[in-house]
Amino acid sequence: MERLIVPVEEQIPQIDARDLPSHDHIKNGLIAKVDAGRDLSFGSLVESDGGIFRYVTDKFKYDGELINWCKGLRDKVVVDLGAGGGVAGYEFARIAGARGYVGVEPFFAQKLLRELDKYIKREPEEFNDKKHIPVSVVCEDMLKTLRRIPSNSVSLISGVIDEFVMEDCDNYIIEVGNEINWVLHPFGSYINYGSIFYPRNLNVEEISEEKLTKFFK
Q1: Which residue segment(s) compose the domain that 61 sits in?
Q2: Is 182 in a helix, a strand, or coil?
Q3: pLDDT tens sequence across 121-175
Q4: CATH for 132
Q5: How many CA atoms, within 13 angstroms, populate the side-chain half-sphere of residue 212?
Q6: Which residues contact 170 (CB under 8 A, 6 or more apart)?
Q7: Where are the beta strands (DSSP E) in the chain?
Q8: Choice between 200 and 63, residue whose per-residue pLDDT is larger
Q9: What is the DSSP letter of 184?
Q10: In a domain, 9, yes or no
Q11: Count of domains forming the chain
Q12: Which of 28, 78, 170, 173 is deepest in the core (most CB within 10 A)?
């Protein structure tokens, strides 16, 4: 079987991977510190269910318009900011035609790695022309990880990191937005669903809830 769980530097060759925890360390239950202007600790957060990305696994109906909406992920490495502990972001990236997936998750990285490992050992049940893609898990604060990534190199997704999670973290929110601008591939996309990170100076296409409902059963 092709090796699909790979170090992040194999997917993003110019990333500064110094001092990043290995997958072996993550398997042992590593939890990272997040310094966002106030203490964001493991006990203070609830794991995201993946938001819209969860529907990719449960209810995604193949639709050319939706896939076209995600064309900025195609053939790119997709970085999932605050990936949680499930495979929804990975499946979203895979179906959209991404080249690889990097889940950045400080608190639930052990679960994320375990679930991805189980998932990619199965044959894809839908969209059989879309094979499994390489995955990496980074157990670190997303801002620190973004600062490691070279400019103009990746696409990104972020789901349900909202005002409640990021309360009193205004400077952190601005800095994350600035770094998203810096790392985003010129032909890539940043897909945001219910997250508070809105980078400046990007061309924005808002997809209404009404429009989204047509894509799902």
Answers
A1: 21-40+47-213
A2: helix
A3: 876 655 445 689 999 999 999 999 999 999 999 999 988 776 666 666 778 888 9
A4: 3.40.50.150
A5: 13
A6: 37
A7: 34-35, 39-40, 77-81, 100-104, 135-138, 155-159, 190-193
A8: 200
A9: B
A10: no
A11: 1
A12: 78
